[in-house]
């Protein structure tokens, strides 16, 4: 949801945006946006089994959402457990497409075992780290952030914290600031009773919009997580 909201913010300034759904295990942006996972041409190739997936170019997977926003949701055809792609090839695939857009937003999985997540975060200009303000999610997110910092050597200044599904029962924001003192907290997304409606119709951001816009205006961002 956040990736889609961010794309809509960026397109207001006449930018060309690409969203890549890199949550290979659970990609769903195509469903939220109301489009098929693969372009028709690729779908026919898959149905006919008449081409090796390794011959599919990343640009063949682009789906046009509107005049300013494109989507790639079928990235699993190129980056999965069967198609072992080297680090150099991985960077080549992505860098080749960056030049055609003002901003590229990559929605990743939170699973740290997925090697491409590490590459994406390290290649990114900014990383929006979305978690929830409850004890269980805080514990998980702190462990994951430690992996980013200690194992993946990700710069803490690159990571911007956003709290999702925030409500009156969430951990107090002042305590959250102490718990995440190494990172910038840029806002929270308020949990509404009709959350499922927002999931389909794009969530409302609370205390995020202005800070996000400032971040984008002061930094040329290629990838956002």
Mean pLDDT: 80
Number of strands: 8
- Give the name of the CATH superfamily: P-loop containing nucleotide triphosphate hydrolases
CATH architecture assignment: 3-Layer(aba) Sandwich
Give the number of domains.
Answer: 1
Order of helices and strands: HEHHEEHEHEHEHEHHE
Structural class of the helix and strand makeup?
alpha/beta
CATH class category name? Alpha Beta
Give the CA-based shape: globular
Widest sheet: strand ordering: 2-3-1-4-8
Helix content: 25-40%
Major sheet: 5 strands, mixed
Count the helices. How many? 9
Characterize the structure shown:
This protein has 9 helices and 8 strands. The chain has a single domain, classed as Rossmann fold (3-Layer(aba) Sandwich), CATH 3.40.50. The protein has a 5-stranded mixed beta sheet, with helices on both faces. Strands 5-6-7 form a 3-stranded parallel beta sheet. The protein is α/β, with parallel strands linked by helices and 225 residues long. It is globular, with a radius of gyration of 18 Å. The C terminus is likely disordered. The protein starts with a helix and ends with a strand.
Layout of helices and strands, plus pairs?
Elements: H1 2-11, E1 17-22, H2 29-33, H3 40-48, E2 62-64, E3 69-72, H4 87-98, E4 103-108, H5 115-123, E5 127-132, H6 135-151, E6 159-166, H7 173-179, E7 184-190, H8 195-201, H9 209-218, E8 223-224
Parallel strand pairs: 1-3, 1-4, 4-8, 5-6, 6-7
Antiparallel strand pairs: 2-3
């Amino acid at each position: 949801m956040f990736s889609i909201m961010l794309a809509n913010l960026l397109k207001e300034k006449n930018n060309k945006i690409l969203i890549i759904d890199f949550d290979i295990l659970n990609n769903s942006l195509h469903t939220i946006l109301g489009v098929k996972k693969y372009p028709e041409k690729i779908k026919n190739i898959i149905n006919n089994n008449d081409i090796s997936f390794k011959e599919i170019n990343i640009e063949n997977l682009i789906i046009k959402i509107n005049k300013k926003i494109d989507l790639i949701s079928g990235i699993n055809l190129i980056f999965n457990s069967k198609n072992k792609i080297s680090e150099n090839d991985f960077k080549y695939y992505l860098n080749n497409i960056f030049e055609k857009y003002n901003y590229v937003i990559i929605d990743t999985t939170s699973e740290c075992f997925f090697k491409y997540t590490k590459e994406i975060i390290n290649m990114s200009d900014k990383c929006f780290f979305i978690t929830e303000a409850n004890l269980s999610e805080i514990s998980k997110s702190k462990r994951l952030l430690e992996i980013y910092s200690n194992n993946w050597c990700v710069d803490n200044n690159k990571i911007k914290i956003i709290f999702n599904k925030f409500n009156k029962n969430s951990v107090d924001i002042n305590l959250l600031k102490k718990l995440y003192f190494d990172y910038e907290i840029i806002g929270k997304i308020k949990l509404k009773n009709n959350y499922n409606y927002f999931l389909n119709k794009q969530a409302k951001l609370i205390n995020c919009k202005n800070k996000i816009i400032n971040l984008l205006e002061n930094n040329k961002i290629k990838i956002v997580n």
